[in-house]
Input
Amino acid sequence: MKNTKQPVDGLLLFAIGALLIIGVIMVYSASAAWGEYRFNDPFYFSKRQALFAFVGVIGLVIMMHFDYWKMRRYVVPALFVCFGLLILVLIPASA
Output
């Protein structure tokens, strides 16, 4: 397989950006009153959502420069780790 750089898909990048912006707006819309009541900051949950969206975009940029075909040997172990984490969610917490 050739290791050539592909151009960035502008439409896909636009769709990702639009979904991120709409998501942050929806989080603000749904949680502004609770954030104001609980933390005296109506943007509390929006800021957290925007921070994690920014971390996701950083991960996107990093993975854009990585050859994902090199990760094929890690697929099966990653699958078992994901199954383990899904089972871990089912274990009730002791409060």
User: Anything to note?
Assistant: Residues 45 and 51 are 10 Å apart (CA to CA).
